Each structure stands twice: as C-alpha cells, then as structure tokens.
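Predict the assembly for these two chains.
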Amino acid sequence: KQEVTQIPAALSVPEGENLVLNCSFTDSAIYNLQWFRQDPGKGLTSLLLIQSSQREQTSGRLNASLDKSSGRSTLYIAASQPGDSATYLCAVRPVGNTGKLIFGQGTTLQVKP
Amino acid sequence: SAVISQKPSRDICQRGTSLTIQCQVDSQVTMMFWYRQQPGQSLTLIATANQGSEATYESGFVIDKFPISRPNLTFSTLTVSNMSPEDSSIYLCSVGQGGNTEAFFGQGTRLTVV
C-alpha cells in the first residue's frame, strides 16, 4: 500500500530564507508526483508536476526534485516571502488506471516578515 | 489546464439534513474525483465519479452516505446525506485525464454541520 510522508509538519522561517520541504513515498511504481499549495480553508493550487522519468522541475522560485528509486522528493523555495505562507502538499499518482492521488499530510509554512 | 467551478464554497447545515455539492469543468475530462479533507488532516479520496455509471467508492465510503452523479464529461455532484458534525470537512472536486497527466482541483466546499 502506497504511503506518503511529509516532514517537517510545520516550519517557521524569517523572510528571505531558502528552505526545503521533504516528501517520501513507499512504492516507486508511480506515474508522477505533484506539489500543491493550499491556503487556509481553500482548495489546492498545483505548483509543480514531475513525471516519473524526470529528475526535477522549476517554476520561478520553486524547484522540485524527484528520486524515484529512493522514494523521495524535495520542494525548494528560494528567497521566501510572507506570501509563501501556506500548507504545501505532495501527492503521488500510482501506476494503474485509477487516476487517484495519494497525499502526504502536508507541511505548514509560515514566513515571518 | 482545467478551470473548475465548485458550488457552494461554504455552508453551515443542520444535522440530519443533506447537502449537494456541484462541480463544473470548463472542458471535457476523462476522470472526476471527490476528496474529503477533515480538519487538520490531509486529503482522502471518497470516490471516482464515472460518467454514465455508478461511482467507484473507496474503502470506508458508501453510496448511501455519499451519492454521486456524473451525467456528462463536464459535471458531477456529491451529496452528503444525513449529516452529522463528523461530516464537517472541506470537500474537493478534482479532474484529470488519467495516466501521467496533471490533476486539478476546485476551490473546495467548506461544510460545517451543527
């Protein structure tokens, strides 16, 4: 059974710091891994999608890496800003035809001005 | 990408009543899903909404409690029936084309049962 774990559960940093969020998964049979952002009480915004054959993806100040063989992904946020404060979720799509995602518990980030 | 409109965005309901949540997509999609996010928790899949046939429910979720409709490739509804305070959650609609494609989410419905 696929399990996804995110550490840390919460993180508080001063503005301007670079930071890394971690995601691990137990079964490497995945199509892809996706990072999402969730603001309190809201839906999910897709940040980055990494296919199983890829090593990393970048969008602006965000960089996500994937090491499928070790079951790990990281989300790197450069020069953090107070507007980055949110919960960050990673999710994997297991191989098969179900299309569903398996989510981690999320990392709640607070960036202090 | 897909633009998803989910209604209502929030509601406060009395226990014992039912609420129907709508999910409208701006383009035809192969797959539509309904997730639940209980307070302080991550997302759990309720069911896959199948066009023209009964939804496929995950373990722990049943059709009598969460009936789902999907009349076409752009629209689905989730009903939360006979609600109790334990049903207070955010309910999210998600769409995708399957395989290795990207998943998209609606803005969620924040349900409080009193």
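The radius of gyration of chain A is 14 Å. Chain A has a mean pLDDT of 95.
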